[in-house]
Design a protein that fits this description.
This protein is α/β, with parallel strands linked by helices. It is 40% helix and 21% strand. It contains nine helices and twelve strands. The chain has a five-stranded mixed beta sheet with strand order 4-3-5-12-6, sandwiched between helices. It has a three-stranded antiparallel beta sheet with strand order 10-7-11. Strand 1 and strand 2 form a beta hairpin. Helix 1 packs across helix 2 and helix 1 packs across helix 4.
């Protein structure tokens, strides 16, 4: 079988039609170059060059073989570039899970950055609740997960990305939605309230229960739902009030006013990036680092937390 050196030599002679200039291009002497061409012709069983005249010319077989030789050399160069990009994390496939609310916070900015910074990485995105993501991280079905804490599972590492406050979601015709009105936490006491499901949206359910206990109020739950956009739809319908993460502002639901609430302190909603500690895929490492960078750079109002690994 012919070698890449033989193909490279053939292409150099075919393009220059001169053994001396071809040898100079390849930084070799003319005798080894001639020997490579002879071995290539012997391997193929055809003459590639017409040597009957003073000038060198490609034979019909040589003209046909030139396109294939160039293509093979190009493929070999591309293969070398590809394999060198793998250890750098510039190429590969990464399966990444995310919660629905994360799609309106860090995920959109990260995907835009990944298209520019990691164009060779095939990013497979899967919407999952946090519990399902943790299970799939443990089983290897996911490489990374944007989840709500806590992160449980042997061999799982995690990095808090940011915290954000809760906002009151109020129907546009409600008195609390009046211009200039700033809701107080006591205004929620006894109000009809669209609440998160304790099963499908356990994290948000527990966060809100903690807020209500600490402030001593008791809204009247009228529905239990799992998705923020569905909760906002019922608020718009006038079914009740709700508390949603600030990322919900990106949804821009008409007929719903989002307002900060006096008396709810801090930023109780947290998003965490989780992965397997033993994962040695360079592409996973590159995606993980970019997620952390985007969360810190594009969301300055959400205070990124210190990296516990440092």
């Amino acid at each position: 079988m012919f070698t890449l050196n033989q193909l490279e030599s053939f292409v150099a002679v075919a393009e220059t039609l001169h053994y001396g200039r071809a040898a100079q291009r390849l930084s070799i002497s003319q005798p080894p170059l001639s020997r490579r061409i002879q071995l290539l012709e012997r391997e193929l069983g055809v003459e590639l060059f017409d040597r009957t005249g003073r000038a060198i010319r490609l034979t019909t077989a040589g003209q046909a073989f030139l396109a294939d030789a160039r293509r093979i050399l190009g493929m070999s160069e591309q293969a070398a570039l590809t394999v060198r990009r793998v250890p750098a994390g510039e190429i590969g496939t990464v399966a990444m899970g995310f919660t629905a609310s994360a799609a309106h916070s860090v995920l959109d900015a990260f995907v835009a950055a990944a298209r520019t910074r990691l164009p060779g990485v095939d990013l497979v995105l899967r919407e999952r609740v946090s519990g399902a993501q943790l299970e799939e991280l443990n089983s290897g079905e996911l490489d990374l997960g944007l989840v709500r804490p806590p992160v449980r599972g042997a061999g799982l590492a995690h990095q808090p990305l940011y915290r954000e406050p809760l906002l009151a979601a109020i129907p546009a015709g409600h008195p609390l939605a009046a211009p200039g009105r700033k809701p107080q936490v006591r205004d929620l006491d006894g109000e009809p309230f669209v609440m998160y499901s304790p099963a499908e949206a356990r994290y948000f359910h527990e966060v809100l229960v903690g807020v209500f206990r600490s402030t001593g109020i008791a809204p009247q739950y009228v529905q239990h739902l799992s998705q923020v956009h569905t909760i906002l739809a019922l608020v718009r319908a006038g079914l009740g009030l709700a508390l949603v993460p600030r990322a919900a502002e990106a949804l821009g639901v008409d007929g719903v006013v989002l307002r900060p609430v006096d008396g709810i302190d801090g930023e109780p909603v947290e998003l965490v990036l989780a992965w397997r500690e033993t994962d040695d895929n360079p592409a996973v490492h590159a995606v993980r680092d970019l997620v952390m960078e985007v969360a810190g750079r594009d969301y300055p109002p959400h205070r990124p937390l210190p990296d516990p690994r440092r």
